Amino acid sequence: MTDEGSAEERWASTETFAVAARRQAGWAIIDVKGDLDVYSAPTLRHVITDRIEQGDARIVIDLEHVDFMDSAGLAAMMMGLRLAGDEQGTLVLVQPGDQARRMLKLTNLDSVLHAFPSVEEAVSLGDLE
């Protein structure tokens, strides 16, 4: 993972899914593209776990380019929230689409997984304690 401003990103991808991790303002930013479902959620879980193991307990999941998310995607993010919390950190979302917002609201996870309109707004909040 690299510091803010660097063009280098690590991408893990399948044909219809990609995820990249970068750093910005002391946060790990995980950019997700494609469908976040039972097939791609393990990749996201791995990236989240990797970031936390490397000491990044403040995580932003950028969902701007995610059109579909199922319960496996939600489970991956809830696992990340729990692991980050264990390290006195947090996990927040940025720009979940309409379908993802409906899923979050339907499961009442919108009260636990906080969403922001931009990465800049999410990282400007510091610790959400």
Structure commentary:
The chain has a six-stranded mixed β-sheet. The longest helix is centred in the middle third of the chain and has 16 residues, at 71-86. The relative contact order is 0.16. It has four helices and six strands, in the order βββαβαβαβα. The protein is of the alpha/beta class and 129 residues long. The chain has a single domain, classed as Transcription Regulator spoIIAA (2-Layer Sandwich), CATH 3.30.750.24. Mean pLDDT is 88; it is low at 1-8.
Topology:
Blueprint: E1 10-13, E2 17-24, E3 27-34, H1 41-53, E4 58-65, H2 71-86, E5 90-94, H3 98-106, E6 115-116, H4 119-123
Parallel strand pairs: 3-4, 4-5, 5-6
Antiparallel strand pairs: 1-2, 2-3
Identify the overall geometry.
globular
Give me the side-by-side strand order of the main sheet: 1-2-3-4-5-6
Structural class: alpha/beta
**The named CATH superfamily:** STAS domain
| Number of E-type strands | 6
Q: Which blocks of ≥5 consecutive residues have pLDDT under 50?
A: 1-8
CATH class: Alpha Beta
> Residue-averaged pLDDT, rounded?
88
How widely separated are the two ends? Answer: 25 Å
Strand/helix succession: EEEHEHEHEH
Instruction: Give the fraction of residues assigned to helices.
Output: 25-40%
CATH fold topology: Transcription Regulator spoIIAA
Please report the number of helical segments: 4
